[in-house]
Specification:
Structural class: alpha/beta
Radius of gyration: 21 Å
Distance between the termini: 13 Å
InterPro entries: DUF1002
Keywords: Signal
Shape: globular
Protein name: DUF1002 domain-containing protein
Number of strands: 5
Length: 275
C-alpha cells in the first residue's frame, strides 16, 4: 500500500516539476571581494558562494571604492574603515533578481533587490556575504563592479548613486516603521509616470497617502527624505511598468516556492500519520 502511495506522490512531484518556472540561462559571472579580507576569511566567503576561488573572474573593492558612493549619504559607523563584504554576481538572460545574503545584518534582501532595480540590474543571481556580520551598505559597490565586469556593460552613474541613497533611506525608515518601508518606496516607484508631472506638494501628498495604505504615519522629516528620493527617481530613465513587472515576477516566484514548501510539508505529515 505504501509503495503505491509513494509512486503516486512521486508522480505528483514530477508533474509539479514540469510546470515549475524554468531557470533562466546563466551567463558570465564575477566575484568582487572586500580588499581587507584575509585568505582564511575569503575561504569562508567562497564557501557561501559555493564555488572554488579561481572558477570565475575576481575583482577587488576597497573602502575608498565604497566611500565613493557612501560618503555623505551613510553614517560613518555603517561605512566603517574596512571593505569586508564580498559579492558573487552571475548574469542571467531573464528571471529577475535571485538574491541571498550571509552575515548581512542591516540591509535586507528586499532592500537589495529594490535598489538593484533602481541601478538598472534586471536579471542576475547575486550572493552577498561576509565572514562576520556587517551592515551590507558597502556591498552595493561590489555588486556594481562585479555586474559590470560580468556583463561588459556600464551602469548609469546617477542610477547607482540613487540606488545607494535608496538603501539608506529605506534602511532608516525600516528601523523606524518596520518591513513596510521597502513596500512604500516600491509603490512610489510604480507611480513614476505620475510623479514626474507633479510638484513637490503633490508628491508629499502622494507619499502620505501611500504610507497610509500600509497603516503607517510618517513624520515630516521622513516625508522630506522620501520626497528627495522620489525626485531623484524622476530624473532616471526608469520605466515604471518594467519595474512593476519585475517586482510581480519576484512575488510570483516566491509564491510558487512557498506552495512547493507547503506541498512537501503536507507529504511529510501524511507519511507521519501512516506510522
Amino acid at each position: 500500500m505504501k509503495k503505491k502511495i509513494l509512486s503516486g506522490v512521486l508522480a505528483i512531484v514530477l508533474s509539479l516539476a514540469m510546470v515549475s518556472p524554468v531557470l533562466a540561462d546563466s551567463k558570465s559571472a564575477c566575484v568582487a571581494i572586500g580588499a581587507d579580507n584575509t585568505e582564511a576569511q575569503l575561504k569562508t566567503v567562497y564557501g557561501y558562494f559555493d564555488i572554488k576561488r579561481g572558477d570565475v573572474e575576481e575583482t577587488v573593492v576597497t573602502n575608498a571604492d565604497e566611500r565613493e558612493y557612501l560618503e555623505g549619504v551613510v553614517s560613518l559607523d555603517k561605512i566603517g574603515s574596512l571593505a569586508l563584504s564580498s559579492v558573487y554576481v552571475q548574469e542571467k538572460s531573464s528571471g529577475g533578481i535571485d538574491l541571498e545574503t550571509h552575515n548581512i545584518d542591516w540591509v535586507t534582501d528586499e532592500m537589495y533587490k529594490s535598489a538593484l532595480g533602481t541601478a538598472g540590474i534586471k536579471n542576475a543571481k547575486v550572493i552577498v556575504a561576509a565572514y562576520t556580520p556587517v551592515s551590507g551598505t558597502g556591498a552595493l559597490t561590489g555588486i556594481y563592479k562585479a555586474y559590470e565586469a560580468a556583463t561588459g556593460d556600464s551602469l548609469d552613474e546617477a542610477a547607482k548613486t540613487t540606488a545607494v541613497e535608496e538603501v539608506v533611506v529605506v534602511g532608516e525608515l525600516q528601523d523606524a516603521i518596520g518591513d513596510d518601508a521597502v513596500n512604500i518606496i516600491n509603490s512610489l516607484k510604480g507611480e513614476i509616470a505620475q510623479t514626474k508631472t507633479m510638484n513637490d506638494d503633490q508628491i508629499r501628498e502622494l507619499i502620505v497617502e501611500t504610507a497610509e495604505k500600509y497603516d503607517t504615519v510618517l513624520d515630516d522629516q521622513q516625508v522630506e527624505e522620501i520626497l528627495v528620493l522620489v525626485n531623484k527617481f524622476n530624473e532616471l530613465n526608469m520605466d515604471p511598468d518594467t519595474f512593476i513587472k519585475l517586482m510581480e515576477a519576484g512575488q510570483q516566484t516566491q509564491g510558487f516556492f512557498q506552495q512547493v514548501q507547503n506541498f512537501f510539508q503536507e507529504i511529510g505529515n501524511f507519511f507521519t500519520n501512516l506510522k
